[in-house]
């Protein structure tokens, strides 16, 4: 008993003495989170605003180019508009007085500041979701590698740079190794039969020097270079190289009697190339590059070249006004749309629509997407590279349309319960395919034929048997046109004469994929040089695409049909096959089919 009481007294004394010790608690939370990463992840998830701020700090969104875009007056305008939208009039008036700026209102007077913050929050949320999904996948032993998806998202946001090999050597720094920085052959042109110069490989400096050469004015090289350069450098680096080339150093040919004339010719060539670039590829010029061009115009004026400054200023003004026109519309009369009596009805359905008009509206939408594809979208297999997909938005849109058309056709056929009605729908799509062929819309034509060849549609034996013979004759005709034999030989031959048209993009993407198997670089005397022969092959494919982008269809848009096509039913392949089995079960007799 005495021993128990003494032990209790001892415990009390120990507790009392411990309470007097000052413990450092400043690192407790930090240590606990470090030792328990699952708690840290949980805290990250329940503090989205804190997450967004930390994300901003980590990716340094306050870098100089962001500050140039979001200057002080822009931020104040956002705050003023927010105050007005929230009804804080006194604060708004006071801030206007202090800043000397006036607020502008949206049509619905909603806060643009809140809108932008919501976008930022969503973007940062996705970053954390991708990171945490990958962590959870590793903990649970799941294959959840989200790293490539994360990189793609960061590239889209401009938070991560693409891996482009840069050449930091000044273009005028011509060393002993520069003798190997360009290789030019003389070949016989296959079209004209005349001798011409052809660049095989070179360094970036060597290629830009040849691009702006004062002796070899090679227009084919210029066209190929401007179309493909983004496969080996960036728009900003190319512009910097052109600016370097313009700034001729005093050490260049100091003893040549006509040096001033040579310098002026170099200036002229640089400005001609810059103008050609701006006029033919306006989408290459973002706001940062436009500002760089504007600064360059001041440099041109300082060199006492007013006519060249005016030349570049004219092209820059076109970029700012978005007045670059891809084609001239001709005066050809557009055919009158074929519309049903219930065109304005909410119950407008597939059966109401004429197949020819349906083909026209599909073609107009396809061509709108196709015509927006930029050359950069077709370089470096951007459409299939997770790091570069943000470049290929229109290519991916057209691929998505192809898949949607194919899925819609198959869904519409297998969804019909009665075999006779199903055969009627199938006939309607065969007619649609024929009209797409007549319109030279090879992309959607292939999508429709692809739907016919899906197992879920192809297996519907009793449905196909009800299709009239004259209708079935259309299918082999289209199959011959789009046959893969000889590398789509028949299609390629028809494409030469087709105008206007929407090419089957899959063929041209396959061509580019094949070319990409060739190395981007050539090793010469331990120097890695750009394989320009490969770029000529790429140019050959993309220029064919560009040719068809320049000739639009002369058709009238029917908005009601366009709206219908946006909301068509779609099923995935497993669902299509299940429904197909319901419609015509395996080993079913003709009498079993309704």
Characterise this structure.
With 594 residues, the protein is mostly helical. Helix content is 59%, strand content 4%. The protein is built from 28 helices and 4 strands. It has helices spanning 2-19, 28-35, 37-46, 48-58, 64-69, 72-85, 89-99, 112-139, 147-156, 204-211, 219-228, 235-246, 259-280, 287-302, 306-321, 355-371, 393-414, 419-438, 442-452, 455-458, 461-465, 469-472, 474-481, 485-497, 505-515, 532-549, 559-566, 573-583, and strands at residues 182-188, 195-202, 521-524, 527-531. A 4-stranded antiparallel sheet has the order 1-2-4-3. A hairpin with a 2-residue loop joins strand 3 and strand 4 (527-531). It starts with a helix and ends in an 11-residue tail after the last helix.
Summarize the structure.
The chain is mainly alpha-helical. Helices cover 59% and strands 4% of the residues. It contains 28 helices and 4 strands.
What are the main properties of this structure?
594 residues, mainly alpha, 4 strands, disordered N terminus, single chain, 28 helices, four-stranded antiparallel β-sheet
How would you summarize the topology of this molecule?
Blueprint: H1 2-19, H2 28-35, H3 37-46, H4 48-58, H5 64-69, H6 72-85, H7 89-99, H8 112-139, H9 147-156, E1 182-188, E2 195-202, H10 204-211, H11 219-228, H12 235-246, H13 259-280, H14 287-302, H15 306-321, H16 355-371, H17 393-414, H18 419-438, H19 442-452, H20 455-458, H21 461-465, H22 469-472, H23 474-481, H24 485-497, H25 505-515, E3 521-524, E4 527-531, H26 532-549, H27 559-566, H28 573-583
Antiparallel strand pairs: 1-2, 2-4, 3-4
Helix pairs in contact: 2-3, 4-8, 6-7, 8-9, 11-26, 12-13, 12-14, 13-15, 14-15, 16-18, 17-18, 17-19, 17-28, 18-19, 25-26
């Amino acid at each position: 008993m005495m021993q128990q009481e003494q032990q209790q007294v001892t415990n009390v004394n120990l507790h009392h003495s411990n309470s007097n010790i000052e413990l450092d608690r400043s690192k407790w939370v930090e240590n606990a989170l470090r030792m328990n990463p699952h708690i840290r992840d949980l805290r990250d998830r329940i503090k989205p605003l804190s997450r967004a701020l930390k994300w901003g700090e980590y990716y340094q969104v306050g870098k100089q180019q962001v500050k140039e875009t979001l200057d002080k007056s822009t931020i104040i305008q956002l705050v003023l508009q927010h105050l007005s939208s929230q009804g804080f009039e006194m604060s708004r008036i006071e801030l206007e007085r202090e800043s000397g700026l006036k607020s502008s209102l949206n049509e619905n007077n909603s806060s643009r500041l809140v809108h932008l913050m919501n976008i930022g929050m969503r973007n940062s949320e996705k970053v954390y979701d991708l990171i945490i999904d990958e962590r959870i996948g590793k903990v649970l032993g799941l294959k959840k590698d989200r790293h490539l998806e994360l990189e793609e998202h960061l590239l889209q946001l401009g938070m991560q740079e693409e891996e482009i090999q840069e050449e930091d050597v000044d273009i005028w720094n011509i060393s002993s190794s520069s003798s190997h920085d360009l290789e030019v052959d003389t070949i016989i042109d296959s079209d004209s039969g005349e001798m011409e110069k052809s660049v095989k490989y070179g360094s970036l400096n060597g290629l830009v020097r040849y691009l702006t050469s004062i002796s070899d004015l090679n227009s084919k090289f210029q066209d190929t270079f401007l179309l493909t350069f983004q496969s080996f450098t960036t728009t900003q680096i190319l512009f910097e190289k052109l600016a370097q080339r313009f700034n001729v150093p005093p050490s260049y040919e100091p003893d040549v009697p006509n040096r001033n004339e040579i310098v002026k010719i170099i200036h002229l060539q640089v400005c001609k190339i810059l103008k050609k670039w701006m006029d033919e590829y306006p989408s290459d010029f973002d706001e940062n590059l436009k500002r760089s061009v504007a600064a360059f115009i001041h440099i041109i004026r300082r060199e006492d070249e007013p006519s060249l400054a005016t030349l570049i200023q004219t092209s820059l003004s076109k970029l700012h006004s978005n007045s670059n026109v891809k084609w001239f519309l001709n005066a050809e009369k557009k055919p009158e749309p074929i519309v049903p009596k219930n065109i304005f009805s909410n119950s407008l359905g597939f059966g109401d629509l004429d197949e020819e008009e349906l083909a026209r509206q599909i073609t107009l939408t396809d061509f709108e997407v196709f015509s927006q594809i930029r050359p950069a979208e077709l370089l470096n297999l951007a459409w299939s590279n997770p790091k570069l997909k943000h470049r290929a938005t229109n290519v991916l849109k057209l691929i998505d349309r192809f898949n949607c058309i194919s899925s819609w056709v198959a869904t519409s056929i297998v969804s019909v319960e009665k075999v006779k009605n199903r055969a009627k729908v199938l006939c309607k799509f065969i007619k649609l395919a024929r009209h797409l062929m007549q319109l030279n819309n090879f992309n959607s034509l292939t999508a429709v034929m692809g739907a016919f060849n899906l197992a879920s549609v192809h297996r519907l034996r009793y449905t196909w048997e009800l299709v009239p013979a004259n209708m079935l004759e259309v299918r082999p005709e289209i199959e011959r046109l789009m046959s893969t034999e000889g590398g789509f030989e028949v299609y390629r031959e028809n494409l030469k004469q087709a105008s206007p048209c929407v090419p089957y993009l899959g063929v041209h993407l396959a061509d580019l994929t094949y070319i990409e198997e060739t190395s981007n670089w050539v090793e010469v005397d331990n120097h890695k040089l750009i394989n320009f022969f490969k770029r000529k092959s790429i140019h050959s494919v993309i220029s064919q695409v560009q040719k068809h982008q320049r000739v639009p269809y002369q058709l009238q848009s029917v908005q009601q049909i366009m709206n219908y096509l946006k909301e068509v039913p779609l099923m995935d392949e497993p669902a299509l096959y299940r429904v197909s089995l319901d419609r015509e079960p395996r080993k079913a007799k003709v009498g079993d089919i309704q």
